[in-house]
From TrEMBL:
Recorded metabolic or biological pathway in which this protein acts: Protein modification; protein ubiquitination
Name this polypeptide is given: RING-type E3 ubiquitin transferase
Transmembrane segments: none
Keywords: Membrane, Metal-binding, Mitochondrion, Mitochondrion outer membrane, Transferase, Transmembrane, Transmembrane helix, Ubl conjugation pathway, Zinc, Zinc-finger
InterPro entries: MDM2_MDM4_MUL1, Znf_RING, Znf_RING/FYVE/PHD
Enzyme Commission identifier(s): 2.3.2.27
UniProt record, GO biological process: positive regulation of developmental process; positive regulation of metabolic process; protein ubiquitination; regulation of anatomical structure morphogenesis; regulation of protein stability
Entries under PROSITE patterns matching the protein: ZF_RING_2
Molecular-function GO term, any one: ubiquitin protein ligase activity
SMART domains according to UniProt: RING
Record GO cellular component, one term: mitochondrial outer membrane
Catalytic activity: S-ubiquitinyl-[E2 ubiquitin-conjugating enzyme]-L-cysteine + [acceptor protein]-L-lysine = [E2 ubiquitin-conjugating enzyme]-L-cysteine + N(6)-ubiquitinyl-[acceptor protein]-L-lysine
Recorded topology in the membrane: Multi-pass membrane protein
Length: 77
């Protein structure tokens, strides 16, 4: 399994936004831990457990702003 190097401007897929330190698997909030939970009902996988727990009440998905009714741990496959 390849592990991403810490570099700016990934060779593949310049997706529109800049400041792209964002690794595919890193939490969108802290950008350092790996994503480890799935928010329901929206189904987004975007943050680590710690950031989820740190979200202010009422907890909302940081991506779509839907209320989070349930969280399922993400298992690495
Ligand atoms: Zn995080
Ligand atoms: Zn969402």
């Amino acid at each position: 399994r390849y592990r991403p190097l810490h570099q700016r401007g990934a060779p593949e897929g310049h997706s529109g936004d800049r400041g792209g330190e964002t690794l595919k698997n890193s939490c969108v909030i802290c950008l350092s831990n790996t994503k480890s939970c799935v928010f329901l009902e929206c189904g987004h996988v975007c943050s680590c457990r710690e950031c989820y727990q740190a979200l202010p009440e009422p907890k909302r998905c940081p991506i779509c702003r839907q209320a989070i009714s349930r969280v399922v741990p993400l298992y690495n496959s």
